[in-house]
């Protein structure tokens, strides 16, 4: 049977007042994914949403050992720096696999990492504040292009332009 895989995308710079709500919403999405038969989860291990997601998956793995977390790291020096920090080192140690996209840093490494995760996932969870530029927006667009399932967790105030209000 094919493993069902879920990845995450989201912002590194969440407003402090949103973090607990986002973590709770991420937990609900991961629980839903597990209920829906997902056993493999991918995280890019960036600060913020990626690491919250990884922590939640690893916490759930304690009671559901079949769950796997795969770290998808953009380039080797980023992996080296993650291994320098106790918290991320410990998370990486229990990952089922670590995929390093490029040996050297290039400006496109993050978009290549995001593309890899979407290509290898059945569902994408996006923590998104509506900005039109940046890695999260690009990952959401790519998710639509590949017609993958998208589950969105909105962040911040959603501003509706006056011409759309009725």
CA(first)-CA(last) distance = 49 Å
Helix fraction by DSSP (H/I, runs of at least 4): 40-55%
The Cα radius of gyration reads 16 Å
Spatial order of the strands forming the largest sheet: 4-3-2-1-5-6
Distinct helical segment count: 6
On the 0 to 100 scale, the average pLDDT is 92
Strand content: 15-25%
Question: Could you give the order of the helices and strands?
Answer: EHEHEHHEHEHE
Structural class: alpha/beta
Largest sheet: 6 strands, parallel
Unreliable spans = none
Shape: globular
* Strand element count: 6
Structure description:
The chain has 6 helices and 6 strands. By secondary structure, the protein is an alpha/beta fold. It has a 6-stranded parallel beta sheet, sandwiched between helices. Helix 1 crosses helix 2 and helix 5 packs parallel to helix 6. The protein is globular, with a radius of gyration of 16 Å. The model has no long low-confidence stretch (mean pLDDT 92).
Secondary structure blueprint with pairings:
Elements lengths: L3 E7 L8 H17 L2 E6 L5 H13 L6 E8 H9 L1 H8 L3 E6 L6 H11 L3 E6 L6 H11 L3 E6 L12
Parallel strand pairs: 1-2, 1-5, 2-3, 3-4, 5-6
Helix pairs in contact: 1-2, 5-6
What descriptors fit this protein?
single chain; about 170 residues; alpha/beta; 6-stranded parallel β-sheet; 6 helices
Question: Briefly, what is this?
Answer:
This protein is an alpha/beta fold.
């Amino acid at each position: 049977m094919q493993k069902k895989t879920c990845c995450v995308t989201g912002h590194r710079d969440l407003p402090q007042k949103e973090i607990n709500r986002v973590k709770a919403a991420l937990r609900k999405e991961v629980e839903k994914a597990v209920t829906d038969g997902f056993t493999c989860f991918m995280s890019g291990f960036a600060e913020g949403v990626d690491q919250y997601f990884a922590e939640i998956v690893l916490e759930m793995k304690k009671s559901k050992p079949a769950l796997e977390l795969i770290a998808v790291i953009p380039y080797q020096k980023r992996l080296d720096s993650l291994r320098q920090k106790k918290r991320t080192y410990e998370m990486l140690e229990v990952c089922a696999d670590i995929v390093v996209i490029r040996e050297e840093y290039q400006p496109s490494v993050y978009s290549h990492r995001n593309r890899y995760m979407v290509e290898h996932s059945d569902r994408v969870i996006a923590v998104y504040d509506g900005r039109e530029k940046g890695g999260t927006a690009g990952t959401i667009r790519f998710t639509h292009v590949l017609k993958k399932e998208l589950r969105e967790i909105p962040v911040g105030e959603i501003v509706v332009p006056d011409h759309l209000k009725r």
